[in-house]
Amino acid sequence: MKILVTGATGYIGGAAAKVMLAKGHEVLGLARSESSAAKLR
Questions:
Q1: I need a surface site. Which of 3, 14, 16, 22 has the fewest CB within 10 A?
Q2: 4 φ, ψ to 5°?
């Protein structure tokens, strides 16, 4: 399943994204800045 996570660099969004990745889902995270985007990579 493809999932978009807004707030993926935050505490809850990051934890949710990690769980979904571990379960085999394709996760796309939304970032508002280049530094936040670097964290997602």
A1: 22
A2: -100, 125
Per-residue pLDDT of the chain (41 residues; tens, 9 = 90+): 999 999 888 999 999 999 999 999 999 998 888 998 888 88
Angstrom distance (rounded) from CA 32 to CA 26: 20
Domain coverage including residue 36: 2-40
* Measured CA distances, 25 to 11, 32, 37 (Å): 19, 23, 19
Q: What is the pTM of this model?
A: 0.77
- Provide the pLDDT for residue 32: 87
